[in-house]
Amino acid sequence: MGADRGAAGRGLPGGSLGRSCSSRAGGSPVLPLTGCVITFNEEDNVEACLESLSFCAELIVVDSHSTDRTRELAEARGARVIERDWPGHIEQKNFAIEQATSEWVLCLDADERVTPELRARIEALFADPAGLAEGYTVNRRNIYLGRWIRGGGFYPDKKLRLFRAGRGRWEGINPHDHVYLDPPGKVTDLGLDIEHYTYRDIADHLKTIDYFAEIAAREKLSRGQRGVALNLLFNPPWKLFKMFVLQGGFRDGWRGLIVAALGAFYVFLRYAKLWELIHVKGEQAGGGQPVKYGRRGEPEALPAPAEGAAAE
Q1: Whether 163 and 273 share a structural domain
Q2: Which of 63, 101, 102, 127 could cross-link 34 (Cys pair, CB 3.0–4.6 Å)?
Q3: Number of helices and strands (H, E) in the chain?
Q4: What is the pTM of this model?
């Protein structure tokens, strides 16, 4: 994205954030924010997610051809829904923020919610816009099997999610993404939470692990990694010990043990899948082009990203 497109291009008079705030019929302020969400078959989550973003002037949902009621429910909440083939997490999220017409962008995953406390803090920020930073980090409160997980490295899990449009972009290695400011600017921690409803149950967790492990293994292969044996032997038990003991997962009881064990299994599975790709399927490491994936982890034949795209 690079350069800021300017306040005038977003319909904000003179770039004045204070004057751009309006109110809904019930008196709730509408802020110069675009709420951005990407979806695929998220009918169980999308309504609550968008409801938590109802203070945003604009809602954009980029949907990867859902086969359930995701689009219908999102449109009923006032979102502009854009249908788009799935190019990967990072690419899809960058496309979403590029569609924003507001001065600011607030990004959520479909299974995340802005808490009332965070909403009130954001509203207070925009009531006095003179001292606004370029971006804001929030904590992510991960809810697992009905309970908030505090240990295992799961909290505060800080994320940069609120930033000026044209300044932030998603980068990283699929499926693990992060927002970076370009050019760098002042980032302030709000110290409040978004809620993340991680998995419906253990079966859903295992399905997601398999999906993400496939993506991670193919990314490693595309980047030329072939060494598997030591990683396969030592990284999973270290991950279990780190999450459950060093990072305090034991404080979350059986849930903490389950999360740590499945975290270790994810590490094991991504290296096992890398071994399978190399030694069973005969795929070659490297080649200079990152692998792209379908929404359920199947490789897709897509062109290489343009120069400067977020793929290492």
Answers
A1: no
A2: 102
A3: 8, 14
A4: 0.78
